[in-house]
Amino acid sequence: MTVTRDDVLKALTRLTLPDGGDVVSRDLVRALSVEGGTVRFVLEAPDPETGRRMEGIRRAAEELVAGLPGVGKATVALTAHQPKGQGAAGGASAGEPPKLKIGGHPTPQQGGPQKVPGIDRILVVASGKGGVGKSTVSANLAVALAKQGRRVGLLDADIYGPSQPRMMGVKDRPDSPDGKTIVPLQAHGVKMMSIGLMVSEEQALVWRGPMLMGALQQLLNQVQWGELDVLIIDLPPGTGDVQLTLCQRTIMTGALIVSTPQDVALLDARKAINMFQMLKTPILGLIENMSSYVCPNCGHEEHLFGHGGVAAEARKLGVPLLGELPLSLDVRLAGDAGTPIAAGEGPVAEAYAAIAGKLIAEGKA
Ligand SMILES: Nc1ncnc2c1ncn2[C@@H]1O[C@H](COP(=O)(O)OP(=O)(O)OP(=O)(O)O)[C@@H](O)[C@H]1O
Q1: Which ligand 1 atom is the nearest neighbour of the CA of 329?
Q2: Pfam families this protein is in (predicted)?
Q3: What pTM was estimated for this model as a whole?
Q4: Which of 44, 306, 307, 348 is 20 to 30 A off residue 268, Cα-Cα?
Q5: What is the CATH architecture assignment of 5-80?
Q6: CA angle (288 as vertex; 287, 292 as ends), nearest 5
Q7: What single string gives the DSSP state of each residue in 68-99?
Q8: Which stretches within 67-197 are classed as H helix?
Q9: How far, in Å, is the centroid of ligand 1 from the Cα of 290?
């Protein structure tokens, strides 16, 4: 069963306010989006004081919507009008985005895709659907390339689920001392920037296509990347505006497609592959993640999600299968702890080193 915008609004009329009316009749619902089973919206309080008292209502709204048939996930953010003269953004040290204004429509561009000055190669890491390990692969590959002496940047373009700061163990906010350029963060030999560090949660929810593209363009051109051999871009999952516009405006060295061996993930991966083919972005290879599970106790290897599907797809497309990465608890623990597994030693680190080595040997990284 699919849920619609109207279903959500109708349900929200049940959420009455202590001083009369409900969140819909009082016009507090903003930027409601329904994408598949995911519902996101903002509740906008008339002032910060009322906003502070509305946390219970925000939680109730989230629970109410999450309980509707067809809804897998509901995210509700609370925002409030600022009294005149008070900006929303604080300084970099306040745990808030830096003051540099980010977002807005992308600047018009003449001609076809262009190079980003100082950056020799750009690799996009993409997947057809979320949760297949795209961010994990991006972080580990960046670290593996840096370990082999490449000058590497990592740009987390996933505004709805930015995960690179956690995976790379970065807690600071980036700074913009001159208000024009942004100093990237540094971790495990990699220069890192995440769009999630530049915007508040509310902005992330409200932004759609053009605003997001404007922000991404700024991150490509206004971050002090310096001279890079390769910039890895961790794309949002799927085949949306961001992927399209990015490849139309910027010269990409190629795309790496991450998929799990499950058929459903592969079907989605095929959509991503078709999109890059249409955009004439070279597909450098497929990477199978969560390929097999090796029992840490007895060493028995099990293909939990099936086996061979990604390799067969790669053959069919005539693109290389760049690597098969095992499902390993250590990968998740390392990601959660902020030190990608590729930074250490062991079989998974070696698998990433092999992928990095291949890309370097072919002049792609
Ligand atoms: N090979 C692996 N073994 C064990 N856990 C993994 C592996 N790859 C990824 N994970 C874990 O799976 C979860 C999802 O991974 P990740 O965030 O990289 O996926 P994603 O495709 O970027 O998802 P999204 O774009 O939806 O955020 C994370 O908790 C990550 O640590």
Answers
A1: 4
A2: FeS_assembly_P (PF01883), ParA (PF10609)
A3: 0.73
A4: 348
A5: 2-Layer Sandwich (3.30)
A6: 150
A7: STT-SEEEEEEEEPPPTT--S---GGGTS--S
A8: 134-147, 164-167
A9: 9
Structural domain boundaries in the chain: 5-80, 119-361
Instruction: Give the per-residue SS3 of 4-51.
Output: CHHHHHHHHCCCECCCCCECCCCCCEEEEEEECCEEEEEEEECCHHHH
- Measure 178 CA to ligand 1 centroid, in angstroms: 36
CATH T-level topology, domain 119-361: Rossmann fold (3.40.50)
* Ligand 1 neighbours (beta carbon < 6 A): 127, 130-136, 158, 161, 163, 237, 289-290, 325, 327-328, 331-332, 335
Tell whether 132 is in a known binding site. Answer: yes
Q: Report ipTM for this prediction.
A: 0.97
Dmax over CA atoms of the chain, in Å, equals 67
Exposure string for 93-105, b = 16+ CB within 10 A, e = fewer: eeeebbebebbee
92 has pLDDT over 50: no
Is 209 annotated to bind a ligand? Reply is no
SS3 content of the chain, % helix, strand, coil (to 5): 35, 25, 40
pLDDT of 157-179, one tens digit each? 887 778 898 899 987 888 888 88
Q: Quick one: average pLDDT of 316-332?
A: 88
Return the higher-pLDDT residue of 82 and 158: 158
Q: Which atom of ligand 1 is nearest to the CA of 139?
A: 18
| Most confident option among 48-62, 124-138, 222-236, 291-305 | 222-236
Using alpha carbons only, how large is the chain's radius of gyration in Å?
22
Testing ligand 1's pocket by substitution, the residue of 332, 333, 341, 355 carrying the most ligand atoms inside 8 A of its CB is 332
Please give the Cα distance from 161 to 237 (Å, whole number): 10
- Give residue for tokens 């629970």: 63
